[in-house]
Design goal:
The protein is of the alpha+beta class and about 350 residues long. It has twelve helices and 13 strands. The longest helix is centred in the middle third of the chain and has 27 residues. The chain is elongated and about 105 Å long.
Length: about 350
């Protein structure tokens, strides 16, 4: 393909000229069709030498598609040096275009400053002492690869978290602590918190903090639960929320921000609620995560909140079942469970039971 492009677009317009200190100079008489019709960005370039070392690249031919990528007109590019337009990647292009041997075809990918992905192919040109470069936009391919990788990373994280949290209620505290630590470490976050509603207030019941940072768990034990629930239900609409603006974080959740020292800057907050009987009963909150990670943060936090919420609700139901409403002491259910346990283990020592009445 690159040979065809070179032959059609260069040989018809090339007239050999004497070589000067810039490289090859070319007298072009481009027709509009030759400049415009080729859909792929394409150039022919010559090395610029200084003491037998390539120090720059000179444009010998450019088409419209390439000129548009550069944001320049062809008349400004032709005969000019690449260093005037791509200083930040000049060394890369010198290596790609001029570093290959005469017969070598090189190809690879690069990410432009404008945010696009391209595959490049470079080969010897039919114009003497030059090489051709053609570029193909692969944004869609990269986007698909990114989405696939993102789903894989997110799925793996969710599976691992679910395995950690899939424990009996008597092991729940350790499991949630371990799960929050994994989530915080994998997301390179500062803190991961489980907020639960209890009466009039919400409180930080489980917390992981990056080693070296101060924990805010003690300061987050009395957040107005009505305010928090209203904000969560109105703003999340049964979904998640990822805030990356400091002013907006402070405006929406001043109770959380107030728990930290004034010199601590909360860069982002990711949170999702969990529910009891259709109403918000708490939330999982991740603070200052690495937003550049290839993960679907919203999906991850929503499923994590589902797992944690189900476990927390299960623990509460078990506590309600096993606890006397008035005294808050264990009732007969845990007593019978403990009795059965001792029967099964066949303890060698005698077991005594103390009865008390109020």
């Amino acid at each position: 393909m690159i040979d065809v492009l070179t032959s059609y677009n260069a040989n018809q317009v090339y007239q050999d000229q004497a070589r000067d200190d810039l490289g090859v100079t070319v007298n072009f008489s481009l027709s509009a069709d030759q400049y415009r019709d080729m859909p792929l960005p394409f150039i022919i370039a010559a090395p610029v030498y200084q003491e037998k070392r390539v120090v720059d690249i000179q444009y010998i031919y450019v088409n419209q598609a390439y000129a548009e990528i550069m944001g320049q007109g062809w008349e400004k590019l032709l005969g000019n040096r690449m260093s005037n337009f791509v200083k930040h990647k000049l060394a890369f292009w010198i290596k790609v275009i001029c570093g290959a041997s005469d017969g070598e075809i090189r190809q690879g990918t690069f990410h432009s400053r404008t945010g696009h992905w391209y595959e490049y192919i470079t080969a010897k040109s039919s114009v003497p002492e030059t090489r051709s470069l053609v570029m193909i936009n692969i944004d869609e391919q990269k986007r698909s690869q990114h989405e696939i990788k993102q789903k894989q990373n997110t799925t793996n994280e969710i599976v691992q978290l679910s395995e950690i949290l899939n424990v009996e209620n008597d092991k729940l505290k350790a499991a949630i602590s371990k799960g929050l630590a994994k989530l915080g470490t994998d997301l390179a976050a500062d803190r991961v918190v489980v907020m639960e509603g209890e009466g009039q207030y919400a409180k930080n019941t489980y917390s992981w903090t990056l080693p070296g940072l101060a924990s805010a768990q003690k300061e987050q034990q009395k957040i107005d639960v009505a305010t928090l629930k209203v904000k969560l239900q109105e703003q999340l609409n049964h979904d998640s929320l990822f805030l990356t603006d400091q002013a907006e974080i402070a405006k929406r959740f001043p109770e959380i921000v107030a728990a930290y020292d004034s010199d601590y800057q909360l860069e982002n907050v990711l949170l999702a609620p969990f529910y009891e009987s259709g109403r918000v009963s708490g939330a999982v909150v991740v603070e200052d995560l690495d937003a550049s990670l290839n993960m679907d943060f919203n999906n991850l936090i929503e499923l994590t909140a589902d797992f944690v919420g189900a476990k927390v609700m299960g623990r509460k139901l078990e506590q309600q079942r096993d606890t006397d409403v008035l005294t808050k002491l264990n009732d007969r259910h845990p007593y019978l469970a403990k009795l059965n346990y001792y029967k099964k283990v066949k303890a060698s020592r005698s077991i005594g039971v103390a009865f008390m009445d109020f």
